[in-house]
Write a structure and sequence with these properties.
The chain has helices spanning about 25-45, 50-75, 120, 160-170, 175-180, and strands at about 15-20, 80-85, 85-90, 100-105, 105-115, 125-130, 135, 140-150, 155. By secondary structure, the protein is of the alpha+beta class. The strands form two sheets. The protein has a five-stranded mixed β-sheet with strand order 5-8-9-7-6. A four-stranded antiparallel β-sheet has the order 1-2-3-4, with helices on one face.
């Protein structure tokens, strides 16, 4: 029997990448942009007769709220997950912030969760809940749950999370407790 030249290797790729996207965040970003536009409109076309202080407060308030909403939502339009031989790296949004890099030496295990929801984490974004751990949630659906050796968990929504879990599990080395028992 001959080896097929195009046979796939069981070895995972050196670098695995995945992404999850939430297009609804763009609508929220538009709301932030509209709030900023209102502030600019107030500053340019001010016909307020009640004085400068209320006008300045309104302009600054609209622009500040708009910037917070705009950048807060754009940071979580998508999340990128990158797995290499040494670490798991999570980057959010178009500029990659917030970012978290977890060395695989700190990972005790990885699990697939088919039902990660913003409601269970208190909303979209970078979340922490004492009873659940830390998460980056940009949409409902599948995700990867990392169990860390320090007892914490880190959850991230990502498409094809089952594949990511397989790659992570394949790369895990025995941790502190396994090394101590030998």
């Amino acid at each position: 029997m001959r080896d097929h030249p195009h046979r796939r290797s069981a070895e995972p790729p050196d670098v695995w990448t995945g992404r999850a996207t939430n297009r609804m965040q763009w609508l929220l970003a538009l709301g932030g942009a509209a709030c900023m536009a209102l502030g600019i409109e107030l500053a340019v076309d001010s016909a307020w007769s009640s004085g400068a202080a209320p006008l300045v407060m309104s302009v600054v308030g609209c622009i500040a709220a708009g910037l917070l909403v705009l950048f807060g939502t754009l940071a979580f339009v998508h999340v990128d997950l990158r797995l290499d031989r040494e670490c798991v790296e999570v980057r959010c949004g178009h500029i990659g912030v917030p970012r978290r890099r977890i060395p695989l030496s700190q990972v005790a295990g990885a699990e697939y969760d088919a039902h990660v929801t913003p409601r269970h984490w208190g909303g979209w974004g970078y979340r922490w809940r004492p009873e659940k751990g830390t998460a980056v949630v940009v949409r409902r659906g599948e995700g990867v749950v990392l169990r860390l050796w320090d007892g914490h968990t880190f959850t991230v929504t990502v498409d094809d999370a089952e594949s990511a879990v397989r790659v992570i599990r394949n790369r895990l080395r025995p941790g502190p407790s396994a090394a101590a028992s030998h």
